[in-house]
Amino acid sequence: MEIEKHQHHQLHVFFLPLMAQGHIIPAIDMAKLFASRGHRSTIIITPHFLPFLSKSINQNTDSATQIDILTIKIPTYEVSLPEETESIHMATTTEMLSKFFQALPMLGPQIEELIKRHRPDGLIADMFFPWATDVAVKFGIPRFMFHGTCYFSLCASVCMIRYEPHKKVSSEYETFIIPNFPDKIEFTASKVADFYKEDVEPQYLKLFKDMHEDEMRCNGVLVNSFYELEPAYADHYTNVLGIKSWHIGPLFLNSKGMNLEEKRGMECSIDKQVWLKWLDSKRPNSVIYVCFGSMIKFEDKQLMEIAMALEGSGQEFIWVVRKEKQEEWLPEGFEERMEGKGLIIRGWAPQVLILDHEAVGGFVTHCGWNSILEGVCAGLPMVAWPVSGEQFYNEKLVTQILGIGIGVGVNKWSRNEGDFVKSEKLENALRRVMKGEEAEEMRSKAKGFAQMAKRAIEEGGSSYMDLEAFFQELRLVRL
Ligand code: UDP
């Protein structure tokens, strides 16, 4: 009776994302999704993101009524950071980044104040705030962790932390099998993020250990993935590794049909008429899209190798580069020769819309989880080129478990650059994902996953139902 009475009770949830674009985008998607199911969402963020957030939220007037924004201030003064450092991207040096992370736990009192004032039913905080569980406990509300990555990578991270296989090998490049894992996956210490290694700044090692402890003790984890994509890993995470979770993705799919780039609040560096007309003139599956996410900036010599591979492969392409001028990093006469064959976007591209165009038949990606989900949902085979962190796990998922991608043989984790990849390697991978039997097989598998993803978020689908289960859990905890 008591449960029934509360079955339709509107819930109010606080979202606390890390102050970075890649974390805020899925938080907004979640907030909108919760609002579309009749609940109230409040996003807590630094003032820097306000214009972006307001623009994005106003896109959907129905749910906008249910979404509030509250601001907090990074205690920059206490850690001697410039006052305007309100996002992780503004911490441009290693020293600034370290201070930024030192400042995060100092946000606790501000969050407490907001909880006291607004009395939400639950707090969904990023993994980078392991102290959030203590804050929530103080007020008797549940704390959930949001993970913007896949189950495969979550399982791999937990196994690295628990069993430390990377410390039992004699060299960086000696292979080991990830222990207590559903499949036999070979890995090397060179691909393990520095955060897990003893020689890293003790602050980061502690943060990562705290994050993993918190993963175990919080009320559960929300994952931006869908069950059908990686069932063995979704089950393993909960049943074997013992971490309660709900799969509620792909989150971005819920917003499809809206003006997605507007929704994301980002200014694109290319006019819609230009890229759309260009793609409309191409045959289905004839263009490869090349983009390395929102942060990676390759050195000129690496860009040169990419250009040579694109030209050498004879492949039509759209290439997104975070550079203003072309002079030093393109082979001489490249743009003239590629006229009509390739389109370079300098800055920010409307990625989801481009991937969805029927002329696009493949994706070269740095294996950021959002990009991979977007590639999967567009039914595209991928060239997997990981650069840092969990991207190396994601690469394994794409190439070995899902069988929808080809790696370029990168062997080393690096905060900025990754391994240098020669043009021949990329050229070979481009050919393999775009043409021939192998490419068709991967494309057909990817399209299968794309359909599963769409079904997962529809009423009655696996992600839809798991979100219902999450709401139910929240109601029970709050009874
Ligand atoms: N993105 C985009 N245009 C760009 C570059 C990136 O729309 O020019 C979006 C992309 O669609 C994805 C996000 O930015 O949603 C990048 O997230 P991901 O997890 O792939 O990588 P990160 O940038 O966090 O490394």
Q: How are the secondary structure elements laid out?
A:
Layout: H1 2-6, E1 12-16, H2 21-36, E2 40-45, H3 50-58, H4 61-64, E3 67-71, H5 94-103, H6 108-118, E4 122-126, H7 132-138, E5 143-147, H8 151-163, E6 175-177, E7 186-188, H9 202-217, E8 221-223, H10 231-240, E9 245-247, H11 260-263, H12 272-280, E10 287-291, H13 300-313, E11 316-321, H14 334-337, E12 342-346, H15 351-356, E13 360-365, H16 369-377, E14 382-384, H17 391-401, E15 405-407, H18 423-434, H19 437-457, H20 462-478
Spatial sequence of strands, sheet with the most strands: 3-2-1-4-5-8-9
The secondary structure category is alpha/beta
- How much beta, percentage-wise? 5-15%
Shape: globular
Overall pLDDT level? 91
Radius of gyration: 22 Å
The biggest sheet amounts to: 7 strands, parallel
Report, as a whole number of angstroms, the end-to-end distance.
Answer: 12 Å
Helix content: 40-55%
> What ligands does this structure carry?
uridine-5'-diphosphate
Return residue spans where pLDDT drops below 50 for at least 5 consecutive residues: none
Distinct helical segment count:
20
Description:
- With 479 residues, this protein is of the alpha/beta class.
- It has 20 helices and 15 strands.
- The protein has helices at residues 2-6, 21-36, 50-58, 61-64, 94-103, 108-118, 132-138, 151-163, 202-217, 231-240, 260-263, 272-280, 300-313, 334-337, 351-356, 369-377, 391-401, 423-434, 437-457, 462-478; strands at 12-16, 40-45, 67-71, 122-126, 143-147, 175-177, 186-188, 221-223, 245-247, 287-291, 316-321, 342-346, 360-365, 382-384, 405-407.
- Strand 13 (360-365), helix 16 and strand 14 (382-384) form a beta-alpha-beta unit.
- It starts with a helix and ends with a helix.
- Uridine-5'-diphosphate (UDP) binds next to helix 2, helix 15 and helix 16.
